[in-house]
C-alpha cells in the first residue's frame, strides 16, 4: 500500500498578534468587535483551525468580516448576541 504525502502548511498567526492585523483592528473597530473575534478564536481547535488555516484564509475571513462591520455595525452587535446566548 502506497503512503500518501501530506503537505503541512504553517498556520497563520492570530490576528491579535499579527503585525499587520492588530494595529488595523485597533484603529478600525470597537472593543466589542475585537472581543467577538477573541471569543471566536477561543472556541476550540475546530473553529481556530478553520479561521487560521493559512494566511490567505485568515486574511480573507478578516477582510470579509471587517467589510460587513463597516457596512452595518448593527450586524456585529446582533452576531455577538447570537453567539453568546
Secondary-structure topology with pairs:
Layout (H helix, E strand, L loop, with lengths): L20 H8 L2 H11 L3 H7 L3 H17 L1 H12 L1
Helix pairs in contact: 4-5
Keywords:
85 residues, mainly alpha
Report a brief summary of the structure.
By secondary structure, the protein is mainly α.
**Percent of residues in beta strands:** under 5%
The average pLDDT value, as a whole number, equals: 80
The outline comes out as globular
How many domains? 1
The main sheet comes to: none
Q: Give the tally of β-strands.
A: 0
**Helical segment count:** 5
Radius of gyration: 15 Å
SSE-based structural type? mainly alpha
Helical amount among residues, as a percent range?
Answer: 55-70%
The SSE order reads: HHHHH
The first-to-last residue Cα distance is: 49 Å
Uncertain runs with pLDDT below 50, 5 residues or more?
A: none
Kindly describe this structure.
This protein has helices at 21-28, 31-41, 45-51, 55-71, 73-84. The chain has one domain. Helix 4 (55-71) crosses helix 5 (73-84). The chain starts with 20 loop residues before the first helix and ends with a helix. Helices cover 65% and strands 0% of the residues. By secondary structure, it is an all-alpha fold. It is globular.
Amino acid at each position: 500500500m502506497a503512503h500518501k504525502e501530506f503537505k503541512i502548511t504553517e498556520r497563520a498567526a492570530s490576528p491579535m498578534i499579527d503585525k499587520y492585523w492588530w494595529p488595523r483592528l485597533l484603529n478600525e473597530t470597537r472593543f466589542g468587535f475585537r472581543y467577538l473575534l477573541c471569543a471566536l478564536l477561543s472556541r476550540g481547535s475546530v473553529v481556530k483551525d478553520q479561521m487560521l488555516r493559512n494566511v490567505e484564509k485568515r486574511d480573507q475571513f478578516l477582510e470579509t468580516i471587517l467589510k460587513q462591520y463597516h457596512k452595518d455595525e448593527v450586524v456585529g452587535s446582533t452576531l455577538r448576541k447570537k453567539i453568546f446566548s
